[in-house]
Amino acid sequence: MPDLAIPDPGPLLDYGLVGIILFLIIRGWLAPKPTIDQLKSEVAYLRKLLAQSEAAHEKTREARHLEAAGANAAALATARANEVLLTDLRDLHGDPEEPT
Fold first, then answer.
1. Are 13 and 19 in contact (CB under 8 A)?
2. Is the pTM of this model over 0.90?
3. What's the CA gap between 30 and 10, in Å, rounded?
4. 66-98 as b/e, with b when 16 or more CB fall inside 10 Å?
């Protein structure tokens, strides 16, 4: 865990307003406007990338769902065709479980 103790600003405060501003910059409580603007643009860029990534993942999930549904439909069609063929064979040759 980082040390959250505030360093002694005494020597910097001896320099007046410049010392106070320098102390705030060193502590990270005060930052120049270009730095803040850069951070804001980075946040906007990362949010845009996150939205694109989520959209891509959603498309992948949809594609996998459609693929699975297509495979299920193909298996169902095969099962129905087999049922028809077996029914036709049974009608032609008789039921093997029936005693002749």
1. yes
2. no
3. 18
4. eeeeeeeeeeeeeeeeeeeeeeeeeeeeeeeee
Q: Tally Cβ neighbours within 10 Å of residue 62.
A: 10
Q: How many CB atoms lie within 10 A of CB 23?
A: 20
Task: Please tell me which residue, 87 or 12, carries the higher pLDDT value.
Answer: 87
| Count of H-run helices and E-run strands, the chain | 3, 0
Q: Is the dihedral of CA 14, 18, 21, 26 positive or negative?
A: negative
pLDDT digits (tens, 9 = 90+) for 31-42: 888 888 999 999
Q: What is the mean pLDDT of the chain?
A: 83
